[in-house]
Write a structure and sequence with these properties.
The chain contains 4 helices and 5 strands, in the order ααβααββββ. By secondary structure, the protein is of the alpha+beta class. The termini are far apart.
Length: 109
């Protein structure tokens, strides 16, 4: 059995970034919280589609870490630190839950 610590030590995402992007592009398989919409609006993103477009630009080079979900045992979250064209750092946390792409966090870092 793989220990939680050994999973955390790896430098690869838990979920396929391409699969998350694909799921988020479809409004039927995307979950975005109201809080994250508000955080994204503060960064200038007007709606869910603009948020998804921004997540679509995230690369594996921007992967920071994976972490277990505190609220949903058994689920993981992949964290990406990305930089906007104006230099603003953003923190994006993603997950796949029941075949839906989930934006857990989308905020200024």
């Amino acid at each position: 059995m793989v220990s939680r610590e050994s999973i955390l030590m790896t430098d690869t995402p838990y979920y396929s970034l391409e699969k998350i992007k694909r799921l988020l592009r479809n409004s039927d398989t995307r979950i975005i919280t109201r809080r994250d919409r508000q955080e994204a609006a503060a960064l200038g993103y007007a709606d869910d589609d603009e948020m998804v477009d921004r997540v679509s630009q995230v690369t594996l080079d921007e992967f920071k870490k994976k972490m277990p979900s505190e609220d949903m045992p058994g689920y993981w979250q992949d964290v990406y630190n990305s930089i906007e064209p104006d230099g603003t750092k953003i923190y994006i946390k993603l997950q796949i839950r029941e075949e839906s792409g989930v934006i857990i966090s989308f905020k200024r870092k």
